[in-house]
């Protein structure tokens, strides 16, 4: 039995060819899925622009500012994506996204406005009877497939996340020698920035809701939680160990990025505050030191020591996992706050101008004395290392003036330290 001789193909070339074939199959599969999902996405955008934006504009059911608050740049997004769909259907993925990315500012504006859109839509549905009837009529059309306007408005945000994954798959399965590789790589970077902005806005909105929720839980208005750079971390029950005695008291603690709030439950018999808490103390984390007294092993529970400038707090829990989570959260919050303050202080030191050298450069030894020579003498008498020198005869000051200026310098140098000591004492606020 004879066999026909087969051409000899090197093993390395065969493996490269197989890899290219796998890339091509994955690329075609990703491209087909991208085109199909883009067609559906453009149809949904067309529903919003046709049956809501255009008809509402023609009927005048909503004012122009209210329409813009709800729909923002959805019409511009629809036009841009129709052009993108044309390029994708032709198989021009790199070129299509290269033309699409310069118009991502429409998506950015839509992302920044989405929370306002939801809030305005809710208000109009509650107060505007004509709009409520119009919305219900439009959503009953067969084209909507029982989808509501509330489901359609977040679609551009979801589509950006999908673009990020599609573009990454296309880039990974495109040969670097292909001209589309660089186009797709730039598109991945541009789309990822918008996707990150969506995540940051969603996280910021969730944090705002948490701050408002805790604010409503606290009785009274003495504690203001809504601060620009404040982030909610966690909350829970912990037992406080008093410095005298052995009785532990359960308290409710709310941990934020810069403060720790200790609260106690209000009386359940209270008509309005039965489910609220009364704030007892607010501990700033700026000068806090966190130590784990015990609970390093797998024994039940643990004890955490928090040391402030003028207070010390011992927190205990019988749940080992819970006390470990509290310890990690406290250490992380304190560490991030201290590192942030260190960066700010270093930046201020770099921006600070050398006042003494500038003044010395402006004055010359032969310069004639001015009426305010005492202040210049105070600056001149201090050496480069902060040492004091006796008054020179060229300053033309009276004999007793040197001692007076020296004492004034000491008082001026001590004043900031006194103020800083007074400010550091306010580390624990009792409300």
Automatic annotation (TrEMBL):
One of its GO terms (cellular component) is plasma membrane. One of its GO terms (biological process) is positive regulation of cell migration. Residues 418-431 have a biased composition (Polar residues). Residues 26-201 form the DH domain. Residues 231-335 form the PH domain. Residues 353-431 are annotated as: Disordered. One of its GO terms (molecular function) is guanyl-nucleotide exchange factor activity. PROSITE patterns: DH_2 (PS50010), PH_DOMAIN (PS50003). InterPro entries: ARHGEF39, DBL_dom_sf, DH_dom, PH-like_dom_sf, PH_domain. This is DH domain-containing protein. It comes from Pygocentrus nattereri (Red-bellied piranha). The gene is ARHGEF39.
